[in-house]
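Supplementary Methods. Inverse-folding protocol.

Structures were first reduced to a discrete structure-token string of length 337. This string, shown here, constituted the complete conditioning input.
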């Protein structure tokens, strides 16, 4: 309540001061001065803008119609610097609202036998002049020549490969790295082309990914080579880990016909982490525990430390229980066998 009364008091006091100022002789003098100052400034501005000035503008350059098998080893400049002269009002319009159309170079019009193209920018004076006011004088165009060098290369398909660091969040993993397209066409002179076996992405860094990532990525440039396309769609499918246990039997290998392996227990439990999407697809048949006759003879004991001979690639944190089993090599008769 106190704050509201205080605000009201300040407001009334400020309003009174403003009212008194506007009704005072000083206020009338200030307003009259401001009015004449504004008129004087407007006349000065009109007079100034009515004079001739010089200004410089940039006009973009576009090289169009470049065939896929052409590699630009030296590109033309990206813009022309155009110097003009006109009244200030016209130049102000250029600065504030005028946008210039790009100067287009059609590759087929300037194709050179020696793969080096030189174009005089004076050829574009008429095109530039049509974009200017009738009163505007075109003083100069810089640079006075456009130059680019190209090579016609052979081509081949190369696979795309990711460069960089990609890490999943805890309890997640990246199940695959997919590119669309997974191969691109590379054009280059023969010597350069022979050395290119892979199209690498620009260096990428993704951390703590917990959901499938999709991104458009550019390919790293190689001097003298041209990739088509020069960017691909990257997909990083992300899955969450879960735990699974299967029972895997021990198999004796390289045993003589009259001998067999007896292991206690005959099966061990294999526990591992796997992505949810792969959980039902991983079975005991994907694991192999082979125990060779020669290995058991060298042990000199009746306990064998279990080792996996084969397991799926997309699992982790594998644990075997029990880690050791008792065994014996049993003699069997040819009749039993």
């Amino acid at each position: 309540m106190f704050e509201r009364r205080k605000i009201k008091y300040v407001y009334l006091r400020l309003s009174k001061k403003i009212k008194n100022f506007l009704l005072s002789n000083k206020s009338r003098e200030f307003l009259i001065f401001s009015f004449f100052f504004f008129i004087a400034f407007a006349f000065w501005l009109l007079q100034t803008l009515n004079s001739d000035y010089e200004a410089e503008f940039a006009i973009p350059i576009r090289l169009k119609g470049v065939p896929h098998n052409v590699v630009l080893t030296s590109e033309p400049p990206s813009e022309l610097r155009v110097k003009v002269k006109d009244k200030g009002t016209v130049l102000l319009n250029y600065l504030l609202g005028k946008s210039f159309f790009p100067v287009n170079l059609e590759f087929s019009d300037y194709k050179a036998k020696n793969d080096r193209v030189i174009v005089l920018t004076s050829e574009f004076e008429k095109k530039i002049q049509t974009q200017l006011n009738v009163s505007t004088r075109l003083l100069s165009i810089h640079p006075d020549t456009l130059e680019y060098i190209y090579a016609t290369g052979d081509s081949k398909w190369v696979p795309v490969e990711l460069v960089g660091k990609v890490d999943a969040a805890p309890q997640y993993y990246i199940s695959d790295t997919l590119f669309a397209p997974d191969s691109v066409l590379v054009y280059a002179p023969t010597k350069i082309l022979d050395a290119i076996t892979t199209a690498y992405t620009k260096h990428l860094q993704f951390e703590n990914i917990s959901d499938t990532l999709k991104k458009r990525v550019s390919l790293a440039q190689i001097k003298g080579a041209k990739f088509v396309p020069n960017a691909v769609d990257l997909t990083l499918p992300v899955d969450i880990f879960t735990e699974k246990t299967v029972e895997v039997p021990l198999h004796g290998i390289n045993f003589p016909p009259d001998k067999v392996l007896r292991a206690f227990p005959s099966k061990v439990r294999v526990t591992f982490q796997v992505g949810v999407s792969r959980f039902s697809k991983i079975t005991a048949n994907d694991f192999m525990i082979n125990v060779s006759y020669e290995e058991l003879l060298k042990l000199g004991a009746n306990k064998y430390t279990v080792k996996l001979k084969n397991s799926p690639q997309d699992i982790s944190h594998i644990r075997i229980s029990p880690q050791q089993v008792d065994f014996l090599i049993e003699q069997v008769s040819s009749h039993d066998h």
